[in-house]
Amino acid sequence: MESKDVEPNLYDRNCGSRQVLDRIGDRWSVLVVLTLADGVKRYSELAQRIDGVSQKMLTQTLRGLERDGLVSRTVHATVPPRVDYALTDLGRTLLPLLSSLQAWATGHLAEVEAARTQYDTRP
Amino acid sequence: MESKDVEPNLYDRNCGSRQVLDRIGDRWSVLVVLTLADGVKRYSELAQRIDGVSQKMLTQTLRGLERDGLVSRTVHATVPPRVDYALTDLGRTLLPLLSSLQAWATGHLAEVEAARTQYDTRP
Q1: Does residue A116 have a pLDDT over 80?
Q2: CB nearest B24 (choices: A23, A101, A119)
């Protein structure tokens, strides 16, 4: 082969891995994937579970996750049509990672909040 | 105690853990913390390593990480003053997590890109 294989490099702005990082770091994507860890959910169930997400953001997040192959969308031919969302096999590989993120965020919350108070009140 | 202790809940928009998630999910924060994994760095070294970050974003990211107690900032009384950044002990607890994020993003890049192509070219 003439062209050399290049390792993905997160530090390079042109590397696709940086876009992937943006997806898996995005707050709404994280919350959607964690909610789907339980199993298939309808749009309305996701909207209810994830406090504060707008309809626009939820729709956009689901579309992004579907495009990235992390979530599947199934339309059932009922009246009105029922739309289900589920994790794909690829999406499922994210779960251990996102559970660790969740555990870190909840487990270190007190330390982060203490640091903020100290920063904000320093002379 | 009258007030009951409440478990941090990522799904609740008012819970601080959601803000913490935003920090540890943020692309520039992730790249700064990973760069500091090697050891102390100056501002200019961070700017050089992290391709595509603007001065404004890097300054803002470092300030946020410092405020959250993840990064320490040391000013040396030289002329011109030298400013060093390093991970704190709390910041260091993020490293296994962010290394996993990095590994996922680089390791699954081909699958995500294939899914995108399929999504974008479907009838």
Answers
A1: yes
A2: A101
In this complex, do A21 and B101 lie within 8 Å of one another by their Cβ atoms?
Answer: yes
| Domains observed in chain A | 16-121 (1.10.10.10)
* pLDDT at residue number B47: 94
Task: Kindly report, residue by residue over A3-61, the tens digit of the pLDDT.
Answer: 445 678 888 888 888 888 888 878 899 999 999 999 999 999 999 999 999 999 999 99
Contact check, Cβ <8 Å, B119/A67? yes
Q: How far is Cα A87 from Cα A102, in angstroms, rounded to an integer?
A: 18
Using a CB-CB distance cutoff of 8 angstroms, which residues of chain A are in contact with residue B9?
Answer: 106
Q: How far is B80 from chain A (nearest CA, A)?
A: 24
Is B21–A27 a contact, with Cβ atoms under 8 angstroms apart? yes
Task: Enter the ipTM.
Answer: 0.85
Q: Is B39 left (phi over 0), alpha (psi -120 to 50) or beta?
A: left
DSSP secondary structure letter of residue A12: S
Residue A34 CA, chain-centre distance (Å), reads: 8
With bands split at pLDDT 50, 70 and 90, how would you rate the model's confidence at B92?
very high
